[in-house]
Specification:
Radius of gyration of chain A: 18 Å
Oligomer: homodimer
Strand order of the largest sheet of chain A: 3-2-1-6-4-7-5
Structural class of chain A: alpha/beta
Number of strands of chain A: 7
Shape of chain A: globular
Chain lengths: 241, 241
Amino acid sequence: MKPPIIILFKTQLGENIGMCARAMLNCGLKQLRLVSPRDGWPNQSAKATAADADLVLENARCFETLEAAISDCHTLYATTARPRAQQIPSLPVATAVKKIQVDADGDRHHQSAVLFGPEASGLDNDAISRVDTLIHLPMNPEFNSLNLAQAVLLFGWEWLRAENESPASTDPQSHSLTASSKKELIIFLDRLESELENAGFFLTPELRPETVRKLRAIFTRASPSEQELCMLHGIVTSLKK
Amino acid sequence: MKPPIIILFKTQLGENIGMCARAMLNCGLKQLRLVSPRDGWPNQSAKATAADADLVLENARCFETLEAAISDCHTLYATTARPRAQQIPSLPVATAVKKIQVDADGDRHHQSAVLFGPEASGLDNDAISRVDTLIHLPMNPEFNSLNLAQAVLLFGWEWLRAENESPASTDPQSHSLTASSKKELIIFLDRLESELENAGFFLTPELRPETVRKLRAIFTRASPSEQELCMLHGIVTSLKK
């Protein structure tokens, strides 16, 4: 099965990147992407805490934007402890890893990724608006702040468990439409935003960012296939006329 | 349900004790015991990494020996990545947490504890000989070295999951004998060792420690009840005569 990519978003401390790499390799996850790490990349502090998971760090890819990092992915998950105002579906982690498996079994090109926010603040709303599904890690409700590497470890642990429990073959008939990549979805959303701009859709500049996030969340949640995205482009083109 | 006690054995770094306390509280575990921590107790470094899990540190109890730390416990588990020569049964972590629940449901005085070894070396054979059941954490076989707090977190996570899945009431009929406390078992084993010494059982001083460990493992694995321990004492007394 195609393992998910782990994406660390605006991580502050190199030490934490190293500890995440170690936790990933503990669970057999090897693909790490970094979005705009505060202290730059490569980072010596990361090496120091990675134990012998250097391989993961050496193969890590660093991106300036989240959009670039998820461009070739098809489904984006994020773990978050706080409830969110935006209407993004949430799954318990055990269900989420099963969905990752089913998607990969149904289409061998399907690439899932899991996004982890910065240490102190968590993911901002802009990043969250790119997320398909939130992953819920049910901890002690009175004390639920996990450090970054521990959140990565719990996700990886559940993924590994699902891998170990997974039957050798699964029914491949569940998918009939090809999932669109995030790149195609982002192109559509950027186009939509620009068309709406031209159309005078955004009443005030202040409200625009929040409105754009809500829009993104709607289409991200819909998880349109390639064919459906073509259709959506067609709709925008038609409406413009 | 009576939560298990976490016992950290000869931990080297205070930082790791703090991170373990945080991981424990994340999972609703609050009883921490320390056996002979290298840098003494209390420890400022532990406070620094515990985030807001000070409560766990403040209530932690520190002991000089493992025997004293487990004295009032009934079942002792240990997590270990390495296979062991001594014949101690091993359970997958999900099964182990269910056993902890069943024991606590069957007898509300039953106290389980989970032992975690020092950072670098893991548990020594002497400590292992006090353990009833090893807990297996199936990680990536090519890279299975977990740091201490992460091992505690994975155990706690599984315990929390079992707690959340547990039905409100369970069948209390499964236990008919009262489990002995570790104190009672240790008293018996110490007596047995001393009687064997007097009887010239140990052929050479060099081989004695290993022989004692094997003996302990046998009786620990048997997990004798209070009544059965009385019987064992009776057997020793009889044989002596």
